[in-house]
Amino acid sequence: MAIAEITVIPVGTASTSLSAYVADIHRYLTDEQAKGAISFELTAMSTIVEGEFDELLRVIRGMHELPFASGAQRVCTSVKFDDRRDKQGSVAQKLRSVADKLD
The whole model's pTM is what? Predict the structure, then answer.
C-alpha cells in the first residue's frame, strides 16, 4: 500500500477562495472511498490518500481534473509519494511508530 500527499491548486479563478474546489475534491474522494479503492484524510494544507499505487494514480488524476470541470483554466498539482515495499505500511502505522518512540 502506498501513501500520497496531494495539493491541487486552481489558478486564474474569479476568487482567492478555494474552498468550493476543496469541497468538490472531498466529495470525489468520499465516492472513491465508498468504492473501497482508497482511504483519505483532508488536512488544512493538503490531502493524504492511501491505497494501491495504481489506484492512487487514477484517483490523483481525477482530483487534478476536477477544477477544470468547475471552470479553472489552469491547475497546478503537487504530489509526494511514500511507496514502501519491504513491509505493509499505512498512515496509522506511521503515526503509531512515532508515538511509540515518544513514550
Answer: 0.88
